[in-house]
């Protein structure tokens, strides 16, 4: 999975996706989407609504997100001063059972990958975003056989990159989150709603109904 052909295909944007050198250790149903990690850290119920119940609500938040990702969701490459930039790069980890793709990966001259995840709106889910980015780094390390010490979150509202160091604590949290999401998908049950300030920013608020009868008091408890 880390041979020269895969590296060249990835840099050209033509990589077809996971091609296992040996039989994969995970059944397809056990594979965890990288995006699910961000949803879980932000709110386990949101994660279950999307990945178990297959609920998706099109609204101003999702429309902004789709518009912002229109460019990075199109596979391609270009040479930048910082290195070769590849968009929509397929990612996977046989060790962790992860699948997904990176918005942008910049390859330095020595071949070291630098993932950049594009986000819309304020940084209200920064830790969740960092876990998602770290999962991309773990996949890149496994695939290309090079350490990935750092990446960045690009928030379109500020149009700035926020560097993220993939230290031991973040790596451990990311791997623990993979296990937690896999357990959630196996159970196929909805966790209780957060019913807190996170709900104001959630695109699934109407489907979740955190203020349903019997839950409102949780929003006003000190």
Amount of beta strand: 15-25%
| Shape label | globular
Run of helices and strands: HEHHHEEEEHEEHHH
Task: Summarize model confidence as the mean pLDDT.
Answer: 81
Secondary structure class reads alpha/beta
Estimated helix fraction: 25-40%
Please summarize the sheet with the most strands: 7 strands, mixed
The tally of strands reads 7
Distance between the termini: 52 Å
Known CATH architecture: Alpha-Beta Complex
Output the CATH class name.
Alpha Beta
Present the secondary structure layout:
Blueprint: H1 4-12, E1 32-33, H2 34-42, H3 44-51, H4 60-69, E2 76-80, E3 83-93, E4 98-107, E5 113-119, H5 126-144, E6 150-155, E7 160-165, H6 168-187, H7 205-208, H8 216-220
Parallel strand pairs: 1-4, 5-6
Antiparallel strand pairs: 2-3, 3-4, 4-5, 6-7
Can you characterise this structure?
The protein has a single domain (4-194), classed as Lambda Exonuclease, Chain A, CATH 3.90.320.10. The chain is 38% helix and 21% strand. The chain has 8 helices and 7 strands. A hairpin with a 4-residue loop joins strand 3 (83-93) and strand 4 (98-107).
């Amino acid at each position: 999975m880390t041979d020269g052909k895969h590296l060249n295909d990835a840099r050209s944007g033509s990589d077809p996706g996971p091609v296992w050198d040996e039989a994969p250790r995970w059944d397809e149903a056990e594979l965890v989407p990288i995006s699910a990690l961000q949803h879980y850290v932000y709110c386990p119920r949101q994660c279950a609504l999307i990945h178990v119940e297959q609920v998706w609500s099109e609204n101003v938040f999702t429309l902004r997100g789709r518009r912002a990702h229109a460019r990075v969701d199109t596979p391609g490459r270009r040479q930048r001063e910082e290195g070769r930039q590849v968009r929509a790069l397929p990612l996977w980890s046989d060790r962790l059972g992860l699948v997904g793709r990176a918005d942008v990966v910049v390859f330095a001259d020595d071949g070291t990958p630098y993932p950049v995840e594009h986000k819309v709106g304020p940084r209200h889910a920064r830790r969740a975003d960092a876990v998602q980015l770290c999962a991309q780094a773990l996949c890149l390390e496994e695939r290309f056989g090079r350490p990935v010490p750092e990446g960045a979150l690009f928030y379109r509202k500020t149009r700035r990159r926020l560097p993220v160091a993939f230290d031991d604590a973040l790596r451990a949290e990311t791997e623990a989150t993979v296990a937690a999401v896999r357990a959630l998908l196996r159970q196929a049950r909805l966790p209780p709603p957060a019913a807190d300030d996170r709900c104001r920013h959630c695109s699934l608020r109407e489907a979740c109904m955190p203020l349903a009868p019997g839950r409102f008091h949780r929003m006003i408890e000190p």
